[in-house]
């Protein structure tokens, strides 16, 4: 009965892409650990680029520099 | 000083219902473990049904099939 | 299909007390929001007092002062 | 490669303030533990006051009483 | 720069199995969303069965009944 | 009443270093957002290097290669 939380920046992931993440990570837990998919939960959080930092700066600023 | 995070799908929970969750889980921690309610924190996350998966598919798709 | 994470300091909560938290918070979600208990997950994290801070100091130091 | 999650109530924190949190906590991990800032991630969650509880009541109600 | 947290019960997952989860979920984010694997983080939490609940009871009790 | 979760690899951080993280991040929230330190919570998770991945491999393997 695993629980998976995936955090990505909010940049237009589609419902189809999110469904592919849910399907893929659930299958991975079946394949690697033999987990039951029926009790495997996945929660995707989409985070604004102002609210995500790496290297000491926000992704918003990092993207602007790139 | 417990911290509780409750994740539910975003499907119209009212402010009153959320207040009841906060009150109830705080009281539970007082009753079971004698925790101080003044330093008990509760955070409720409401998650879009496209972003929540169970059984390898999103709740959006699961609801459509049901 | 809610997911609940409860964080408490590691100070000897028994298996019975943890079972009571699991049972109580699951029932609360049934009572307040009509959620299905069969797909309600609860994860309890017990955190060392050196690793928990409030008021700018660790719980270990806070307990020593009290 | 630390990961930091900061949860605050959604009450108008500006992009500049959030950038200051990201910069400050990344520097703290460099100063205290010698961590590499390039692989230090920070995620800020802003939570509605209806969804945040302390002392058994929501911040919305608490603010109204104060 | 995604962040993934995988929670499983602590029941003897090997270092090789955990490496396979890390490799697999990182590749999934590359395939589905074109994310950069170099800044993709994965954290696996292994949780005692007394501390994990589903259906209102701990996994420890659930396993005993099965 | 912010809540901060800091995840680091378990590699011998001392109680003094963890106290410095707690003190530092609490002060940062006071300085940047004017938050009340008395209701600011910090939880530090120390994660085994087998359980932390970056770049598609565990930190254990990454350290071995370096």
Subunit organisation of the chains: homohexamer
The CATH homology group name of chain A: Macrophage Migration Inhibitory Factor
Please tell me what the overall shape of chain A is: elongated
Average residue-wise pLDDT of chain A: 97
Largest sheet of chain A: 2 strands, parallel
The secondary structure category of chain A is alpha+beta
**How many strand units of chain A?**
4
For this structure, what is the CATH class of chain A? Alpha Beta
Number of domains of chain A: 1
Strand content of chain A: 25-35%
Key features of this structure:
homohexamer, 66 residues, alpha+beta, Macrophage Migration Inhibitory Factor, two-stranded parallel sheet, two-stranded antiparallel ribbon, 4 strands, elongated
Fold and architecture overview:
Six copies of one chain form a homohexamer. Chain A has helices spanning 15-33, 59-65, and strands at residues 3-9, 41-47, 52-54, 57-58. With 66 residues, the first copy, chain A, is an alpha+beta fold. Chain A has one domain (3-64): Macrophage Migration Inhibitory Factor. The first copy, chain A, is 39% helix and 29% strand. Chain A starts with a strand and ends with a helix. The first copy, chain A, is built from two helices and four strands. The interface between A and E is medium-sized, with 25 and 25 residues. β3 (52-54) of chain C pairs antiparallel with β2 of chain F.
């Amino acid at each position: 009965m695993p629980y998976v939380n995936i955090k990505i920046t909010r940049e237009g992931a589609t419902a189809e892409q999110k469904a592919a993440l849910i399907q893929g990570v659930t299958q991975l837990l079946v394949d690697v650990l033999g987990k039951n998919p029926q009790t495997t939960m996945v929660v995707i959080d989409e985070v604004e680029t102002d609210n995500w930092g790496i290297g000491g700066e926000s992704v918003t600023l990092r993207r602007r520099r790139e």
